[in-house]
Amino acid sequence: MRFGVLGPLEVWSAGGEPVGVPETKVRALLVDLLVHRGRVVSADRLAEDLWAQRQPANPTASLQTKVSRLRRALGDLVEARPPGYVLLAEPEAVDLGRFEALVLRARRADNARVRADLLTEALELWRGPAFAGFTDEEFVRAAAERAEEQRLSAVESLAEAHLELGEQPDLAQLVTEHPLRERLRAAHIRALYLAGRQNEAIEHYEDLRARLADELGLDPGPELAELHTAILRQDPALTRSSVRRTNLPAPVTEIVGRSPAVAEVRELLAVKRLVTLTGPGGVGKTRLAFETAAQLVESFSDGVWLVEFWDNDAVVEAVASALGIRDDAAPVPLFDRLVDSLRDKNMLLVLDNCEHVVEPVARLVELLLRTAPALRVLATSQEPIGIAGETLWSVPTLDNADATTLFAERAAASGYAVDPSSPEVARLCERLDGIPLALELAATRVRVLGVHELLTRLDDRFSVLTSGNRGAPSRQQTLRAMIDWSWELLSEPERVVLRRLAVHVDGCTLDAAEAVCAADVLDPLARLVDRSLVVVLDGPRYRLLESVAAYSAERLAEAGELDVVRRRHHDYYAGLAESAQLRGPEQRDWVLRLDRENANLRQALDFGGDIRLAKVLSWYWYLSGRISEARRAFEGVGALDPQSSACLAGMSVLSGQNVEIPEADDPESQWFLGFALYRGGMDLGASERLIERALAGYTELGDEWGIAAALSVRASQALVRGDLDRARADGERAQSLFRKHGDQWGQLQTVYPLAALAEISGDYARAKRLNRDGLRIAEDLQLWSEAADRLTGLGRLALLTGDFAVADELHERARKLAARQSYRAGEIHAEIGLALGARRQGELDAAEHHLREVYEWNRHAAFDPGNALILAELGFVAELRGDADAALALHTKGLAVARHIGDPRAIALAQEGLAGAHSLAGDREYANRLLDEAAAARNTAGAPLPSAERADVDRVRARLRALSQVDGAGKPR
């Protein structure tokens, strides 16, 4: 699919057919996502952009509705990613991205004809003003202005290419529209002169000079002044090509994944005079600097000049040499001549690889910025230059999409084709941290080893990634040499901290670093961060890239410290787990904290191998949805005690497995097993017995949290059995106790029974409020299995209120979310909702497909309460198809199941279904009696059928009335 924003908003299919995007707000949403091409836009930002000061009552729900409508037009291209949404479109799938790519190719082209053709193709993409129809929106204005500036710059470049080719560009209209654009006026004046219209050229210069003075209080820039002088002198150089204004090397390969970075650095250089690109070795600081600088050559009248520092270069001499200032025996020192030569220059100076000469670079740059007001400096360094006015920009590693693209391209150049979408390639790039140099080194090996073998050998990466570009500096030819270069620049305290940090996985806090390193870490850590060897994450947390960690771990072993440091690591994280408050008001904070430390906790468990730590972590694993991880942990620690066996069995049930349930003597194990059996949709009777024993045990202990936990499960069990009074009493008492203890997870457990009771009584507003509050708690705690169930609850309510599109979307979201959590029961809950929606929309084949899937799972799990509903739904599908025999068989079977579980509402549902089957067969009297019995049963249970759920009963009643009218007319049925 392609998108057009260079003019009115347009969308085209891959075949070029227009794709309709209806409704102004939906189109505005698409424009907002296109403005942020490829980047996630938060839901809050989107709502603010779409509605500004006139926010709807529920902005989140309104935005979800608009997103849903946009997805109907675009499909899966609109993806939800925390904290909002992103449009999955390749850069050149948007005409603005295509335009930028063509302009960039033109800037790199040495041949003027190639430049002219590329720029012409780029400008032909414009169908009108950028983002036409949306430029009054605040969120569009800056992007539209930026695009217009790019267009004008491309027009100027095209005019200059035509002049170089001896062709005459027609710029008169543009000059009238933009009389103060100096570059445009320069091209126009040169064109007039070359056309033999010298007087007009001079008049245009005088007109510009007067306008600049009157409107801006400025004089023409040096380039225009020199052009004016050359015209007056009739300088023959005016008819020759421009003098080269840069010494940047021409790129040998295309840069991958850095377009947003280039744009950001360009924007910084427009307002900042010293920008330093920092980052670890091999991350691509130099390449990013070169790419950015190449795009800015035409922005600096005195050009863009590169100075590369190798080994121990004399800084002043290197800069002077790059600028063509000879180091001869002149009476004025070279330093002074360099400063004087740059005093009036409008120039960008690129200083590459400054980390080993940072002090002399700092002294020189500080003086040059003070004495040369039009000078800009773009530096690359593993640490800051450290002077006033410096703006740091940390070069990120490549994300996995760009990393796999780079790896595939470089592998292809080595003669080996790889699939960038392969999971193995993605894993390889992830293991190499998305560092371009490491990826390029790996690409040179893939032809010999293949991707799989290369991936398996990354544990010994320093002996594998040893063949680089012979033309590169020695420190960039192997992975080890790259990190050796950084290591050699460190002091001994910095080396101690770096090697000891290597035992951490996925970073650590400052407290953890101090405990595990057993050293004064603050100053060395700050220096390591400055040198880009330690990455600072939110928190703050301190993390080593995997290659740096592997290198540092080798140094740790060489120092003989590996075992003692790993023991300190184990002891610190075991203590952290034991101190966690996972029940009560601090629950959310502790879950998030342990989430951040999950990899370190796993490392500690692997090192210690003790059951105690596994049991301590078991409730956290459940709360964070790490069911499979919990199972692996218990299976890997050896002989299990009774509590550990109960934990393992409960976790296995929650992941959808049938396992033998062990004996449990303590209330904690009894409750967890009973909870798991119920939540996993297995063996309701065994779950009820376990919960009753747990409730008795917790009551004897006076454990209010445990009492509330047992009551919340019993409330849901009572609901399944049709005991609405007990469900209400237990649910409300559990909710009260959990609120007393400030336990959000516990409050979440009471949502289902209480919301279901509200739904049964027809109070959909209360049911919706309870489910929304539950979803908010689940998302706040990042309990994604719980969130899946709450989405299903909201989907069911949307179904009942007739909003089928929203219901389908919510159920599908719930199904996918549950699947990602290996929460099979949650998938089943959502699939039931999809089945209900399909039947109510007349999609009987789809409904039956979903129902058969659920029926087989319920049979496997021995969950009769679930099959009472499924058999009723299958019976209604058969009735709607007019198959009386099939409907009768299914509803008869459903009635038997309902009577077995003793739920009066399930019995009533089966009777209503049987009435429908008998009405098809023409048995009017028996069908009416069944409907009356069903209504009486529902009334006796205190749950009369709400109007929104009467569609099946009303359909059967209508058929029976029609039969009665036929009988009354004396006609045979």
TrEMBL record:
Gene3D superfamilies: Tetratricopeptide repeat domain, Winged helix-like DNA-binding domain superfamily/Winged helix DNA-binding domain. Keywords: DNA-binding. The lineage of its organism: Bacteria, Bacillati, Actinomycetota, Actinomycetes, Pseudonocardiales. Residues 1-89 form the OmpR/PhoB-type domain. This is BTAD domain-containing putative transcriptional regulator. PROSITE patterns: OMPR_PHOB (PS51755). PANTHER family: HTH-TYPE TRANSCRIPTIONAL REGULATOR RV0890C-RELATED (PTHR47691:SF3), REGULATOR-RELATED (PTHR47691). Residues 1-89 bind DNA. The keyword DNA-binding applies.
